[in-house]
Amino acid sequence: MAYDEIRGGDVGLRGVEEEWALLMRAAIGGDSTAYRRLLASLTPVLRTVTRRNCARIGLDGGEAEDIVQEVLLAIHLKRHTWDVDRPFGPWIMTIARNKLIDARRRRGNRLTLPIDDLADILTAEGSDDATDRGDLDRLLGGLGERQRDLVRSLSVEGRSVQETAARLKMSEGAVRVALHRAIKALAALYRGNGDEN
User: Fold this and answer.
1) For residue range 158-173, what is the model confidence (pLDDT) as tens digits?
2) What global pTM score does this model have?
3) Which residue intervals of the chain are DSSP H helices?
4) How far apart (Å, rounded) are the C-alpha atoms in residues 77 and 44?
5) Residue 50 CB neighbour total at 10 angstroms
6) Distance CA 186, CA 189 (A)
């Protein structure tokens, strides 16, 4: 992410940048009010830059807020490393760029789908063919009982996460985590079956 991206050639931003530098110098000197003002002024700009760049590098827009929080934490932890004689804007944008890169690396090449849409995706392309059912039953047989119940409830029976959680006496978050693990296990089982054929 180029520093010019945030500046956009706007001369008015130069004044904001200078204000940020003044606030950061005061914050390093122990002025907590200046530090709060700095973070309050930086946060909306970081959100805008992060959202735009998430889309550009293939990250979900929902990840932007997490990245902004990581940037703010990095600023807090590394504020003593800023050279007060150098411009403040490029230092901030370097931190933001690095946090975006870290997030992209963590995500890797995996595809993310909303968990609530999983039942729709699986049933939309499914068929009632006996061979497909047999394959499904064989794959599900490789899962543990709880994982098998989750997949059947959400994907085969079409129940919601909320209904499944109530039926299995689990929290909705625990159902989502367990389903994610079950899907990973199913993918491994499927790859193993594919290698045998």
Assistant:
1) 778 888 888 888 888 8
2) 0.51
3) 3-7, 11-28, 32-56, 64-78, 88-107, 118-124, 130-141, 145-151, 161-168, 172-196
4) 20
5) 26
6) 5
